[in-house]
């Protein structure tokens, strides 16, 4: 499932939202220099934002289709899973991961980040948690219950909770690595207006959806489309970008 995103990398790059400028600026400001390693860089959505903020970015991603698209947009990428990637002695001021750290082993990943970060370097892993207006969320929950009854239904409750669980796992991994100061959580709230078409374009980019039987995906999109039509054809999604971050201690790892 972790490598399903590249099945339609162009759609992914078009449809997925970026990250708030305030997050990018805060990570860059809290890092001791401009060299950034973007773990699970995908098509380069976060990488390009860090480049625009003056950083020098290297991406690592196991999916060659995502990596190719990132390269076309000017991001240098090495194709590998982070846990087994060979840093070849290179060191970075920041290690970031946008929507990707849950695909990486949180303990091995934090240890690998510690290995490549300079003392004082910053690990920052972050996710865009989304929350539609209450009544639309309930309508989406109904559609998912009907079309995908066998899968967990995030729409049925506060979606941020699912992301906070991932944050908890990331923080535990960082503590276990034993090479970082205490992990902090940073949150940034923002809103984005979606038309029916814009949201329906994004839905198939969710992890694993591209592997759904086509008729099921069609039913899902039809149900979601009807729910959006019922509220006037567009809606405002509230996003909370939540980051777990810690600074590399100035100690040498054994
Ligand atoms: C949801 S995408 C996020 C892409 C990009 N960071 C963004 O913000 O849009 C997750 C990415 O993590 C990559 N990935 C999966 N397992 C990984 C691993 N073990 N190490 C590094 N990247 C991984 C996938 O190939 C995919 O490109």
Structural class, from helix and strand content?
Answer: alpha/beta
Strand order of the largest sheet: 3-2-1-4-5-7-6
Mean pLDDT: 94
Beta-strand percent range: 15-25%
Q: Pick out the low-confidence regions.
A: none
Bound molecules: S-adenosylmethionine
Shape: globular
| Number of E-type strands | 7
Can you describe what's shown?
Helix content is 40%, strand content 25%. By secondary structure, the protein is an alpha/beta fold. A 7-stranded mixed beta sheet has the order 3-2-1-4-5-7-6, sandwiched between helices. The longest helix has 19 residues, at 159-177.
Task: Lay out the secondary structure.
Elements: H1 9-15, H2 21-29, E1 35-39, H3 45-52, E2 56-61, H4 64-72, E3 76-79, E4 92-98, H5 106-116, E5 117-131, H6 134-147, H7 159-177, E6 184-195, H8 196-202, H9 214-230, E7 234-247
Parallel strand pairs: 1-2, 1-4, 2-3, 4-5
Antiparallel strand pairs: 5-7, 6-7
Bound molecules: S-adenosylmethionine.
S-adenosylmethionine is lined by residues 2-3, 5, 16, 39-42, 45-46, 60-63, 66, 81-83, 98-100, 103-104.
Can I get a quick summary?
The chain has 254 residues and is an alpha/beta fold. The protein has helices at residues 9-15, 21-29, 45-52, 64-72, 106-116, 134-147, 159-177, 196-202, 214-230, and strands at 35-39, 56-61, 76-79, 92-98, 117-131, 184-195, 234-247. The longest helix is centred in the middle third of the chain and has 19 residues, at 159-177.
Question: Can you give keywords for this protein?
Answer:
alpha/beta, 9 helices, globular, binds S-adenosylmethionine, 254 residues, 25% strand
């Amino acid at each position: 499932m972790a490598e399903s995103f590249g099945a339609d990398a162009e759609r992914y790059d078009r449809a997925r939202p970026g990250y708030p400028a305030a997050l990018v600026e805060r990570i860059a400001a809290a890092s001791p220099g401009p060299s950034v390693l973007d773990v699970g860089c995908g098509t380069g959505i976060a990488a390009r934002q860090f480049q625009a903020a003056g950083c020098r970015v290297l991406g690592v991603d196991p999916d060659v289709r995502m990596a190719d698209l990132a390269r076309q947009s000017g991001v240098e990428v090495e194709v590998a899973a982070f846990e087994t990637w060979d840093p070849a002695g290179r060191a970075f001021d920041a290690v970031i991961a946008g929507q990707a750290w849950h695909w990486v082993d949180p303990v091995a990943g934090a240890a690998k980040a510690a290995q490549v970060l300079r003392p004082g370097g910053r690990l920052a892993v972050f996710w865009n948690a989304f929350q539609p207006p209450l009544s639309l969320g309930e309508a989406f929950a109904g559609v998912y219950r009907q079309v995908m009854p066998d899968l967990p239904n995030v729409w049925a409750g506060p979606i941020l909770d699912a992301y906070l669980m991932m944050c908890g796992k990331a923080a535990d991994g960082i503590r276990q690595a034993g090479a970082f100061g205490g992990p902090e959580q940073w949150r940034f709230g923002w809103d984005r207006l979606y038309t029916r078409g814009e949201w329906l374009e994004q839905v198939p980019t969710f992890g694993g959806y591209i592997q759904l039987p086509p008729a099921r995906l069609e039913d899902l999109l039809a149900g979601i489309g009807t729910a959006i039509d019922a509220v006037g054809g567009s809606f405002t999604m509230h996003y909370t970008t939540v980051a777990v971050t810690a600074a590399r201690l100035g100690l040498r790892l054994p």
